[in-house]
Design brief:
The protein has a single domain, classed as tt1808, chain A (Alpha-Beta Complex). Strand 2 and strand 3 form a beta hairpin. It is globular. The longest helix is centred in the N-terminal third of the chain and has 21 residues. The model has no long low-confidence stretch (mean pLDDT about 95). The two termini are about 30 Å apart. The protein has 4 helices and 14 strands. The protein is of the alpha+beta class.
């Protein structure tokens, strides 16, 4: 659901939204509200977060967070990626309350295709998120968007039987089959 006011919503408005179990995000001043994610979504988020966290814990390189975490890209753009990684080079963006600026890597488990594949993809590219992963449980694949200039060209599509790797986390290898079967 989307709410468009006469004047754009801001992070200051966002701070007064109700704590009602729904996820609120502001994209270009417009509020988007989604219900709590389903259990399969949560199984995948939890499984992937643990692997990323363990990798960073062992090898360093940054910090990994799981939603809810406010990512304040600008006063009128506030999002909550399911998982985010902030590289050591970007750690000055981490504040006690939120992340002020883009994460190095944002991960979404697909909930709303238009929101995740269109709005957030465009927003993440605009603000310089180096990599954006969309885990699509129903499509049984992971879409890996890597920033080239100020846009994401055609994503790399990874299906069962492949490994997800990234230059952002050297040595990390995620079994896509295991990821898509998390909790199952």
């Amino acid at each position: 659901m989307s709410v468009r006011p006469a004047t754009p919503w801001t992070y200051e408005d966002y701070l007064h939204f109700p704590d009602d179990g729904k996820r609120y995000e502001i994209v270009e001043g417009e509020v988007f509200v989604t219900p709590a994610p389903n259990m399969r979504h949560q199984d995948i988020v939890g499984w992937l977060f643990v692997r990323l966290y363990q990798h960073v814990d062992r090898h360093g390189g940054g910090r990994v967070y799981v939603a809810p975490v406010d990512v304040v890209l600008s006063p009128t753009n506030v999002v909550e990626p399911d998982i985010l990684f902030v590289a050591d080079a970007d750690k000055d963006r981490i504040t006690r309350a939120n992340l002020q600026g883009p994460p190095t890597l944002a991960v979404e488990v697909l909930s709303d295709a238009r929101h995740d594949r269109v709005r957030k993809r465009r927003l993440y590219a605009q603000f310089g998120v180096a990599e954006y992963w969309i885990v699509d449980p129903d499509g049984e694949r992971v879409e890996v968007h890597r920033l080239a200039g100020q846009e994401y060209p055609t994503p790399t599509l990874l299906e069962a039987g492949t490994e997800l790797t990234t230059v952002l986390l050297p040595g990390l290898s995620i079994d896509v089959t295991a990821l898509l079967n998390a909790g199952g």
